[in-house]
Design a protein that fits this description.
By secondary structure, the chain is α+β, with helices and mostly antiparallel strands. The protein is about 35% helix and about 30% strand. Among the domains are: about 110 residues, Ubiquitin-like (UB roll); about 50 residues, LysM domain (Membrane-bound Lytic Murein Transglycosylase D, Chain A, Roll); about 120 residues, L,D-transpeptidase catalytic domain-like (Beta Barrel). The strands form ten sheets. Strands 23-22-21-30-24 form a five-stranded mixed sheet, with no helix packed on it. Strands 25, 26, 27, 28 and 29 form a five-stranded mixed sheet that branches. A four-stranded mixed sheet has the order 14-13-18-17.
């Protein structure tokens, strides 16, 4: 019997491929693992080298600032804190040009650092520079080697100087609340609500000053404010107070000595309402008060209105004095207030033929006063086109005119006429100045009275002297009795009715005493 042989089939190609893929995967994994090991080794080696480097640098810079560190724009790496502080101190001494800017958002106030009590703290900056790279571990240390580091400005503060600067600014930056105001609408009293103000909080702003970030030459600090609210008034009570004041009447009068006219103004309810304001009362509640400055503004407006009908008029009032007069009268319940009417200084351009004497006559201004107002001008040689100052009429009539009384001197007739309430009271002969020492024409006023005046220039006595105008050089001309010489004789006796004096207005013996008794300081005297 023969044996039977069993044959195995040859391996298929598919099985061979599988074995080859397994071999490839095993080889790839090995290669990847090898690369990973190499990378980890490289990273570890890098960290190790970095660590070694940092350890070496740490030992090298143990007491020194790391490199690449700057302060005040200069490198301080490699220095000790003491060395860096010393250098920064010298640089800081030149930085007083640094500016502190305080701002409320709209306005800005600038001060030199030293004025505001700011001083660069060199020691603090050196110590902070030393900490660069030492805080934050290895990453912090490496960062110093990869880029520059700038040390921020650090200041020491003089709180007293800083507070002084802030308090100075506070006076400008703070605004008081606008209190409620009184007005008229359709003739009825209305209360206009107030508006809140603000006050600067100096203490909080000082804290902001000490913590503000700074540039190399500039520190900017926003101001801190607190709101201040006005007190709300009792509308009914305020309206009643205002109505009581508006029921009063005020009439203003002013006499013009040059035109012999009396100007009159009766103030309306609308004008009076502009004088009223609310002020805190004794209990803190608002009450109606009179505003003196509003009265003054109203008087200015009245004077300006005079110029509307006569451009260049220039008349006005002694505003402070007049406002006080009106205020007192209104406060007392109202009435008539007589005010002094002022006149402006004038400017004249010299024309052909003008002389000091002709200008004096033209403007009713004694030549001595005109000369005093134009020092340096040679009145013997006036030039066409030359500018001359003519003093204000107020120099000649400084007092409130006495109502109802007036003295008129006629140079042509050599007469003195005295009027009271428009009626002729006296009419006397007189002797005025001779041609070489004339009595000046113009509008004047009784300035003073001396029962027995002495004229040292001529060594004579002038009984019942009534001064009328300053002639210049401290000399006054006026009315008086026939003068008495040193020997007791009467000068110019028998000369009444023709010019004879050195500028004064001479009256007879009884007439001079009568005028002396009747005339008051302020009576207007017209010499024509």
């Amino acid at each position: 019997m023969s044996a039977q042989t069993t044959r195995r089939p040859p391996p298929t190609r598919q099985g061979s491929d599988i074995r080859q893929n397994d071999n490839r995967q095993t080889g790839g994994a090995f290669a990847g693992g090898l690369i990973l090991v190499l990378l980890l080794s490289l990273v570890a080696a890098s960290f190790f080298c970095g660590w070694v480097f940092l350890q070496r640098m740490e030992r090298l810079y143990a007491n020194h600032i790391y490199p690449h560190v700057y302060a005040l724009g200069v490198p301080i790496g490699g220095m000790t804190t003491t060395e860096a502080a010393r250098m920064l101190e010298s640089i800081a001494a030149q930085l007083d040009t640094g500016i502190l800017i305080l701002t409320d958002g709209d306005q800005r106030w600038s001060f030199a650092w030293s004025q505001a009590g700011l001083r660069v703290d060199a020691q603090a900056m050196a110590e902070e520079a030393y900490r660069f790279g030492r805080d934050g571990g290895i990453e912090g240390q490496l960062s110093v080697w990869l880029r520059n580091a700038d040390t921020p400005l650090r200041f020491s503060y003089d709180a007293e100087a800083g507070r002084a600067v802030l308090e100075q600014v506070a006076t400008e930056a703070s605004t008081p609340p606008e209190e409620a105001t009184i007005g008229l609408e359709n003739g009825q009293v209305v209360i206009v609500p107030g508006k809140p103000g603000r006050v600067m909080n100096v203490s909080q702003t000082l804290v902001a000053l000490t913590t503000a970030e700074a540039g190399l030459h500039r520190v900017e600090v926003p101001l801190t404010f607190e709101s201040v609210h006005p007190v709300a008034p009792d509308t009914a009570d305020i309206t009643a107070q205002a109505e009581a004041l508006l029921a009063r009447t005020i009439t203003l009068t002013a006499y013009d000595v040059l035109t012999d006219q009396t100007l009159t103004w009766t103030l309306t309810r609308e004008i009076l309402a502009t004088w009223l304001r609310l002020t805190p009362g004794p209990d803190g509640k608002p009450v109606v008060d009179t505003n003196l400055y509003a009265i003054r503004d109203n008087l200015v407006a009245l004077a300006e209105a005079l110029g509307e009908s006569s451009p260049g008029d220039g008349r006005g009032f002694r505003y402070d004095e007049a406002a006080q007069q009106v205020f007192q009268t209104f406060d007392a319940g109202g009435g008539v207030v007589t005010l002094y009417l002022t006149h402006p200084q004038r400017t004249y351009i010299v024309e052909s033929g003008d002389t000091l004497t002709s200008l004096s006559a033209k403007f009713g201004m004694p030549s001595g006063l005109a000369a005093e107002a134009n020092p340096g001008i040679d009145y013997n040689r006036l030039s066409v086109g030359q500018q001359i100052i003519i003093p204000s009429q107020d120099v000649l009539t400084p007092y409130m005119p006495v109502p109802g009384k007036r003295i008129v001197v006629s140079l042509a007739e050599q007469r003195v006429r005295v009027y009271e309430n428009g009626a002729l009271l006296y009419d006397w002969p007189t002797s005025t100045g001779i041609a070489t020492s004339p009595t000046h024409r113009g509008t004047f006023q009784v300035l003073s009275k001396t029962e027995k005046a002495y004229a040292s220039q001529w060594n004579l006595w002038m009984p019942y002297f009534v001064a009328v105008y300053p002639a210049g050089g401290g000399v006054e001309n006026g009315f008086h009795e026939l003068p008495i010489l040193a020997n007791g004789q009467r000068l110019w006796a028998g000369s009444l009715g023709r010019p004879a004096s050195f500028g004064c207005i001479i009256l007879g013996i009884p007439e001079a005493e009568t005028l002396y008794t009747w005339a008051e300081v302020g009576v207007v005297v017209v010499i024509e």
